[in-house]
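Fold this complex.
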Amino acid sequence: MGLGAALVAILPLIGVVATALGDGQADIALSDLSRYALTSVALSAQVAVLTAVLGVTAAWLVVGHDFPGRRWLSWALALPLAAPAFALAYGYADLFDAAGDLRIWMRGTLGVDMPFEMRSLGGAGLILSLAFYPYVYLAMRAALLNQSSQAIEAARMLGASPARAFFQVALPMARPALAAGVALAVMETLADYGAVQFLGVQTLTTGVVRAWFVFGSVEAAARIALPLLAFAAVLMWIERMGRSGADHDSGRGRWRPLTLQPLPPVKAALATGFCLMLVGLGLVLPLGWMAHTMIDITPEWPRLIAAARHSVGLAVIAALVTVALAALLALGSTRHPLAARIASLGYATPGAVMAIGLLIPAAVLWRLVPGSVGGFGMGIALLIYAYAARLMAAAFEPIEAGLTRVTPSVVQASRMLGRSETGTAWAIQLPLARGALFTAALVVFVDVMKELPATLMLRPFNVDTLAVMADNYARDERLANAGWPTLLLVLLALPAVLWLTRKISTSRPGEP
Amino acid sequence: MTDRPTLTATGLARRYGRDAGVHVVDLTLVPGQVTALLGPSGSGKSTLLRLIAGLEAPDAGEIRLGETVLSWPGQTVPPEHRGIGLMFQEHALFPHKTVLGNVTFGLSHLPRAEARDRALDLLRSLRLEDRAKAWPSTLSGGEQQRVALARALAREPAVLLMDEPFSGLDASLRAEVRDALTPALRAAGAAVLIVTHDAEDALAMADHLVLLDQGEVLQAGTPEACYLRPVSLAAARMLGPVEALPARVDGDAVATPLGRFAKPEGEATGWQLLVRPGDVRLADQGVAATVVARRFAGNVTDVTVVMIGPDGEHRLTVSHAGPVPAIGQPAFLALAPDRALVVPA
Amino acid sequence: MTKPFASVRALAGAFALGLLVAACGQPESETKTADTAPPADAGVVNLYTARHYDSDLRLYERFTELTGIRVNRIEGNPDTLIARMQSEGEASPADVFVAADAGALWRVQDAGLFQPANSTMLQEAIPANLREPGGHWYGFSRRARIVAYDAAKVRPEEVDTYEELASPRFRGKLCVRSSDSVYNLSLVGALIEVWGEAKTRAWVEGIVANMARQPEGGDRDQIRAVGAGICEVAITNSYYYIRLASGEDAGDREITERVKLAFPSLDGRGAHVNISGGGVAANAPNFDNAVKLLEFLASPEAQSLVAEYNNEYPASPSVTVPAPVSAYAPFEAHPMSVARYGPRQAAAQAMMSQAGWR
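Structure:
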């Protein structure tokens, strides 16, 4: 069963590899390809460094120090997760456009211009970092909360200043979490489609798209995608290593949370300011600007509401299906650990690459079931399948974590009392892990709400989601119109993100 | 090594600690001497330890090391500047540093080579020199504990605090490690404070014993004094099982179910007689009782007897070496006057 | 747990859920046309469209009003849609494919995904150079790829040919979007057709040398960059400028008072023109309805509506141009067949990449 679920997830990846083996040429100069690859690496490196600095600083401030607003900032800092990266790209590109009011005012009144463009590698790195730093923040926050204060106190007792205790003890001990968080941020960067494309930064994904769209060669596109897949696999591996490393030092012995260090007024104000700035730059400023520009536009309410219904409906179904499959995978993961690893690859797969791979299982389905292509239900099923393949890892992680907290003896007791393995899963494991199942469902829900490339490719007739609508307007260079679906999307995703972050912020080691 | 200062805590109080609070505690830690702080969980002993370590600030009172004030209400010299070492209950070894890395961590003020040499010396004295390159997760519980000790001693602290140092070890290893450790601690010359809930550890190691309950010191003194002359039932119970029998004042003496004993100095509203199981003997004559239960425990047999006195029935358990009457048979109890512990009720 | 059927069951469950949504999601496309009392249900037409304009929806609603044929629609990137049609093969439900670039239409044809629709009405309504000779696809609206210039710094006669844009006169003073844009690909494809490889290559290199900044943003952003003084000339599609000039944003309207539109001429025969158009899919299940949709799009009413909604030019010279497009309508369009751009796009992309046009 676990194997079956894993197969579901990796079919598109097999599709990419199979396609890459086919004939087909794209006349893309090697120099261009290497430039795309370098840009991808440079962008990933930027995002890795920036998300690490921002996320670690925020987590360390919130977990280890007391300052005004700490309590609500500790969950508010994760809220940018509700905003898709392309939304931030729209907002920032427009706000800081060289020909925009702000820059004209800066040049005219202040006599200075912005030192860099948002529509550039640097700008894209900044925007994606602001969108993805919550991954590092959440991972580091959990790791620091899990760390017993004893290690830091031991360092202090051995003469280390608070700073040295953090950099030499707390941070190295949380290194697995840092690696995992950064790997997630970089994977999201590689998988990004909307933001990078809108900002005109040409990454390897650009190469895939150019080979496919301009030169019309899916095969060449798939070949360009292979290094991306390899990169993703390496990141996935790093992330898994991070998780396995995190196991050995948590949960043993008498756990005591870190002592909150009171900060003197000036430093406290700086800490509050830094956290507010992150939330502001990651959510409030770009979306606020979009809200400002869209205020003159009267949206087409019926279309907007229909798109919202589609977004929410797809996200809910995808959450249910993905969680069901991921639960199968997790229940079987002790037996097939490799299957679980491979199935997680989809998460790091760039959207355009996933799209190529998805066409192959789709084609099989279309040919197997004549008339299914136009069929609404089949179209939806295929789309749900795409979501499940892409987000399997995101759902798998919390469910696996939840299941490992179920003591083996409880499972064995159920088997001794005459329940089958499946019966035990239903009666014991899944109910005990229901919190984890719900968390996984919410993660999938939020990600599907923001999803773009697979939806663009595979949706059936007359199904527009909010993300698709926003993308359409943006491609038509009507950013003000794109504001409405974007903001509605964020508003609908926000409660789920809120629930997730509040739950994360109250959970303690040893609790389910 | 010889002119190390004494740590004195006076009027120390901490009301809302994370653990139980501490109410007005005085404590003195003398160099070269091992003080054991004994108390059940929730007695405030961990809070007291954290106050001395500087991990928390007191609400009242102060802590001095020699002439230097380390803590005063609401303020505390940060732990890294106090010259106090702390061995954590779970050892808190840094999992990402080797044994040597752990021990040299506190020696960052020394040149690298010198720090390394000192650490290796310490490890050698604790028979750990071959584990210098090992990772903490590969060490046994006893080894981890010795590394933690080496790490704490490396800085030559004036005061060494040890939080439940033997709690992680199983019973067979415990006595061995404890007995090996005690000379090393004395040799270090620091004022040592051991916090523990185990009476056996405290009695075996301490030069000076402090009994703490509900944030207050019940009794302080040598282990012998505390054991032989408890000031209250609560203090006596901390050092071993004890049973209380009523004692009625009768002139200069108190009358108890086990006979008459001298009344101690001082005034109290009432008195009681404390009896440890090994102190009462089964004899040929004495106070008459009936055996109601017996439990064989190896070199002794625990015998439960019932005495009928003027003020009712009293039940008592006696540990006796030698033959024991059968259940339902009479027995005679004798308590030597020097073992009679009469304390205020 | 390892029973192979279990995963099949899980998948089947997923599909069942999908069908469930189908049941609750389907009716809405029907309600749209209910109040306009259409003719009896005349079936459906399935449209794959790479145009992504809100206004097109109103166009399709009008079609349903007139014919009773419901329009099912998927929007997407042209090549995503092509890939999808290829994967769907003979089972493809696509009846009509519509794109906003002649090159994209050619690629569909090249992939064998169009079939001829030899309707007399279409052939009469659409000029010969705006449709594929074999009837595989037809252009319904035109957009010119022309020049927006800073009226204070540039004289109109300095931008009345495409060559001038690459001349040293505009060194560091030109704004243009990236070479990924199909509009640029078709423009350069047309230049290759007229000038040949060598001259076009020199032109592309001249453009790259003239760039005021690395390509960023869309056409609208280039016009606004001229307005902000970042460059003096920008290459843009006509409707983006017209949209700024007649839109709701006061700031944008103010820009177009300083930034004017020029129609450069290619070899003295007029400005480069691209089309929006469509054709009947090779495996169209509703062939008749597909042709009806194309004929509707070619009708004077639809052409006029597109011009009005999206500020494009009608394809037929006979259709009256509505405001505000009418103010920009009197220009000479190059008579080259738009079917020539597509085959040149790959060469154009290679040439632009080599020259460093991002």
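Residues 2-506 of chain A form a domain with the MetI-like fold fold (CATH 1.10.3720.10).
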